[in-house]
Write a structure and sequence with these properties.
The protein is an all-alpha fold. 72% of the residues lie in helices and 3% in strands. The termini are far apart. The longest helix is centred in the last third of the chain and has 28 residues.
Length: 330
């Protein structure tokens, strides 16, 4: 009994909460009916301090770690909305390397039903779930499961860092259809982010190809997502994008040199995910290089672009005139 009391007190110091004797007793009773693992105690303490002792009384007995995980997710749903919790944790779970808060914001607006649940009375002009709403949910998850449950990286990425939470999220939220919806939403969000990166650095080819952690992060996530979602058209678009490919292959050392990890990955995606032979892959890149060269020529010679547009307009006008003459003659 004394040892158990010390464990509970130590746990309360970790989660930075003081508890009443009534709550401590309920924690004792609940823990005794559980698997009595450190994770069980952590979950019980988190539920008691976030939802009160009544939440513990309603838990099914006997308690396994899996039941506690599912019950804690249900508490989050009751506090924040089921679709919002499902989509946020699902989006964090479908990409192992993590995504940014901005990616989550944009993707949430594309997952069916989420914005209707969050914005019951009004909708902001951009239609995005406020960053504070997302941060509040993730902060409560850290309080409930521990700080390592949600990992914040220096480059702005965030991901689920707790294996048992990943498993519980997969079981509860990521059936075939929801997982497909979330992967599609993230693909759109990351594609838009890559387009924004290109627009910001479109002044020169050197700016586009300058080593960038941001571009490498986006390219890696896009390649992984499209390969694992089975979207062959989207995967082809990512792998044949020379800017994305350049940053993807330069991930290992940040200097644009091909890495020992991503080169086999790209090769595997071309051969096994897309089923292309070397000659077919070469043809894709030959066309991509020709297109990039054309874009660079037009960028360095705006007058030529204007002349090409004028020629095209003249051709369209001539065609229209010919069609009208033919119609009149008829």
């Amino acid at each position: 009994e004394e040892e158990f009391t010390r464990i509970v007190e130590r746990g309360c110091r970790v989660i930075k909460h003081a508890i009443s004797e009534e709550t401590a007793e309920e924690i004792r009773q609940t823990f005794r009916s559980s698997d009595q693992t450190p994770l069980c105690l952590r979950l019980i303490l988190g539920m008691a301090t976030n939802a009160g002792p009544e939440a513990l009384k309603q838990l099914p007995r006997p308690l396994s770690t899996e039941k506690l995980m599912q019950s804690s997710l249900q508490l989050l749903e009751e506090a924040h909305g089921k679709l919002f919790v499902q989509a946020t944790l699902g989006l964090l779970n479908v990409v192992p390397m993590g995504v940014t808060y901005r990616n989550i914001q944009q993707a949430l607006s594309l997952v069916p039903g989420v914005t209707d649940e969050v914005f019951r009375f009004w909708t902001p002009p951009d239609g995005l779930v406020p960053l504070t709403t997302i941060v509040q949910l993730l902060s409560e998850i850290q309080e409930l499961y521990g700080e390592m449950a949600v990992l914040d990286f220096a480059d702005g990425r965030v991901s689920v860092g707790m294996k048992s939470l990943r498993v519980a999220v997969n079981e509860r939220y990521l059936g075939d259809q929801p997982k497909e919806e979330m992967m599609r939403a993230l693909t759109v969000a990351l594609t838009q982010e890559l387009a924004e990166f290109k627009a910001r650095n479109s002044a020169s080819l050197a700016a586009l190809l300058k080593p960038s952690d941001e571009a490498a992060r986006i390219s890696l996530a896009l390649a992984w997502l499209t390969a694992h979602s089975g979207d062959k058209e989207a995967l082809t678009a990512v792998l044949s994008d020379l800017v994305a490919l350049h940053h993807l292959l330069g991930i290992s050392n940040g200097a644009g040199a091909a890495s020992a990890t991503t080169v086999p990955m790209v090769t595997r995606y071309w051969k096994f995910n897309l089923g292309l032979k070397p000659a077919e892959i070469s043809a894709v890149y030959t066309a991509a290089i020709a297109d990039l060269q054309q874009q660079l020529r037009l960028r360095s010679n705006p007058k030529k672009k204007e002349a090409d547009n004028t020629t095209a307009d003249t051709a369209v006008t001539a065609t229209a005139t010919t069609d009208n003459t033919t119609t009149t003659t008829t």
